[in-house]
Design brief:
With about 110 residues, this protein is an alpha+beta fold. The chain has 4 helices and 5 strands. It has one domain.
Length: about 110
């Protein structure tokens, strides 16, 4: 199963993603920080995305209960793939640069 991502509202949280197979929870913050939590049960994910205020749920039930690694939230590779498909990027033409000619000026 792939990483399921959701936008979060409220507080300093921006988005979250969960991989049920790996029990990995990713939390993206408004300042660009990403925290990756391991061994998080599916019920915690369900409760986080259903919470009236996910930031409060995060502070009370996740932040100090699970070990995490810090990182930076970057553009989703899935989003990049979708844009490449839409606009034709990522192919040989993109690698050749503008014009893509042989460089002799003709």
């Amino acid at each position: 199963m792939a990483l399921e991502r959701r936008t979060l509202r409220g507080g300093r949280l921006k988005a979250a993603g969960y991989d049920a197979r790996e029990q990995r929870l990713e939390i993206d913050f408004a300042d660009g920080e990403r925290r990756v939590f391991k061994a998080v049960p599916p019920e915690v994910w369900r409760r986080l995305v259903a919470a009236p205020n996910p930031a409060v749920f995060y502070a009370d039930r996740i932040e100090e209960e699970y070990a995490f690694e810090r990182g930076r939230a970057g553009p989703s590779s899935d989003a990049r793939t979708k844009l490449d498909r839409l606009f034709g990027g990522g192919g040989k033409e993109a690698d050749e640069g503008v014009g893509g000619g042989d460089g002799d000026g003709d």
